[in-house]
């Protein structure tokens, strides 16, 4: 009789020993970046990194300079912090830096979706066809009508027009943007009231998953939290199933196009359900938080609020909150003040991490002429929030909100920014860049701009406590798209009479 306990114990010790030995044996080779393996074998710097990624990387940059390799949970990450050296990484003419491999592993873990050949290119093709040009204009109209429906309710104003309404500003923005985006992309039934109730219930479940998401990615959940994640995944797979899609009207052409591709590739309905969950997250995980920060910054900076309202009134006249309203969507492309507000908000609060798997040993030449050897199997990483958005050389007073930072003296869009006297191409990178740039960025930006316009043109807005400071960022959210606040300020709004 085999004593499986001792056998499995010995096997576990052997595996752990191997992993620790692998970390201990790694040495810096000639021309490689500075290597910092951290205080704990195999784990390396994982605990400090996960606790506060921003502060950790700032410390590492001060210690090692603009390029360094750190060990995080048995994997080695090389961070490049000099934005003037980003070009070869983002272009990757030799195709030795693979974004797709890492992304496929992540979406399998987080959403349960197993990629098929060509689906990454398909998503970009679908987005080019349906989230740009005429396809984008069509979705803009749907999004505006749905935003109005969510704000007014199915039978008229759902917000009391005779009393001020108080709500957590983050919850208010996230709730509206999620429901509008969900209904616009994944369709609706003939019962609008039921649709809104179902969207509200789904939002509450989405927020539960959202709160667990950062620690889920890092595998730091407790036993009960792992069970909760499983429950939430199953719920979203069911609610977003292709079977339910057949019962709905107005499923967006974007979603329809992608599901058609998966069907043609022989992907099972169950895996298509998981794909839908991934697309819901990709499309709705950042628009609500970004809109919250934009609205909060406008409330804290009255001069910015006035400038946005004046621009909107001049170009659009009255923007009324009503069903089936007429709207000149072309004006969204002629609003440099609102564009600057959004770009400044994203600069201050969007913190994506750009990751590439190094497929073969290769040389990276930095802007200053230094050459570094990148080791095959490592992950090359960029964190533009620290290296670009918060660089005082590129953006003076980087922590301050300046609504006109991206405006020229003549009021047009400013695109000329410099570092060390050299014009820099990537002066903000909220959507990523290169092969990993967000394919839905134009829809997301228009959705947020429509929401801000409806809010500032139809509501009296104020903070319950006008002196409340802008809350700091929840440190768990660094590196996961748009950050979220550590606590929620209370807002007060009053729907103006039509």
UniProtKB/TrEMBL annotation:
It is a single-pass membrane protein. The keyword Endoplasmic reticulum applies. Keywords: Endoplasmic reticulum, Heme, Iron, Lipid biosynthesis, Lipid metabolism, Membrane, Metal-binding, Transmembrane, Transmembrane helix. PANTHER family: 7-ALPHA-HYDROXYCHOLEST-4-EN-3-ONE 12-ALPHA-HYDROXYLASE (PTHR24306:SF0), PTHR24306. The gene is CYP8B1. Its cofactor is heme. Heme binds at residue 438. One of its GO terms (molecular function) is sterol 12-alpha-hydroxylase activity. Its main location: endoplasmic reticulum. This is Cytochrome P450 family 8 subfamily B member 1. Belongs to the cytochrome P450 family. The keyword Transport does not apply. It comes from the Eukaryota. It comes from Capra hircus (Goat). Substrate binds at residues 109, 286. GO terms for biological process: lipid metabolic process. The chain crosses the membrane at residues 6-25. GO terms for cellular component: endoplasmic reticulum membrane. It is found in: Endoplasmic reticulum membrane. InterPro entries: Cyt_P450, Cyt_P450_CYP7A1-type, Cyt_P450_E_grp-IV, Cyt_P450_sf.
């Amino acid at each position: 009789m085999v004593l499986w306990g001792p056998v499995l114990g010995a096997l576990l010790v052997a595996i752990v020993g191997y992993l620790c030995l692998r970390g201990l044996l790694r040495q810096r080779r000639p021309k490689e970046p500075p290597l910092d393996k951290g205080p704990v074998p195999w784990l390396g710097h994982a605990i400090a990194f996960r606790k506060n990624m921003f502060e950790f990387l700032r410390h590492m940059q001060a210690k090692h300079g603009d390029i360094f390799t750190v060990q995080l949970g048995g994997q080695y990450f090389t961070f490049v912090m000099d934005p003037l050296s980003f070009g070869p990484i983002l272009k990757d003419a030799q195709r030795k830096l693979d974004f797709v491999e890492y992304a496929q592993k992540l979406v399998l873990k987080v959403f349960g979706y197993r990629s098929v050949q060509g689906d990454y290119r398909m998503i970009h093709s679908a987005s080019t066809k349906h989230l740009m040009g005429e396809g984008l204009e069509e979705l803009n109209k749907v999004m505006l009508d749905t935003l109005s429906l969510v704000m007014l309710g199915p039978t008229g104003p759902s917000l009391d027009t005779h009393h001020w309404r108080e709500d957590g500003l983050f919850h208010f923005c996230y709730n509206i943007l999620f429901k509008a985006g969900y209904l616009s992309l994944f369709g609706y039934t003939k019962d609008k009231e039921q649709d809104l109730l179902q969207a509200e219930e789904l939002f509450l479940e989405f927020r539960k998953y959202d709160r667990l998401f950062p620690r889920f990615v890092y595998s730091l959940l407790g036993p009960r939290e792992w069970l909760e994640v499983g429950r939430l995944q199953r719920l979203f797979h069911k609610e977003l199933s292709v079977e339910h899609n057949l019962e709905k009207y107005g499923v967006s052409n974007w979603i329809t196009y992608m599901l058609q591709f998966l069907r043609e590739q022989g992907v099972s309905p169950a895996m298509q359900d998981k794909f839908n969950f991934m697309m819901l997250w990709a499309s709705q995980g950042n628009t609500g938080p970004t809109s919250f920060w934009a609205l909060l910054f406008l409330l804290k900076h009255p001069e910015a609020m006035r400038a946005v309202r004046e621009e909107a009134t001049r170009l659009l006249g009255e923007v009324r909150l009503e069903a089936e309203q007429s709207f000149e969507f072309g004006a969204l492309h002629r609003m440099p003040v609102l564009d600057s507000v959004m770009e400044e908000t994203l600069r201050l609060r969007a913190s994506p991490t750009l990751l590439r798997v190094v497929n073969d040993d290769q040389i990276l030449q930095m802007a200053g002429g230094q050459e570094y050897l990148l080791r095959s199997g490592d992950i090359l990483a960029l964190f533009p929030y620290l290296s670009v958005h918060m660089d005082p050389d590129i953006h003076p007073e980087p922590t301050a909100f300046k609504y006109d930072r991206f405006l020229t003296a003549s009021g047009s869009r400013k695109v000329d920014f410099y570092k060390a006297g050299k014009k820099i191409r990537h002066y903000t990178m909220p959507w990523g860049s290169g092969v990993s740039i967000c394919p839905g960025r134009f829809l997301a930006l228009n959705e947020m701009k429509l929401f801000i316009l409806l809010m500032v043109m139809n509501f009296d807005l104020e903070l319950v406590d006008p002196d409340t400071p802008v809350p700091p960022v929840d440190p768990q959210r660094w590196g996961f798209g748009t950050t979220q606040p550590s606590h929620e300020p209370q807002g007060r709004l009053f729907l103006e009479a039509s």
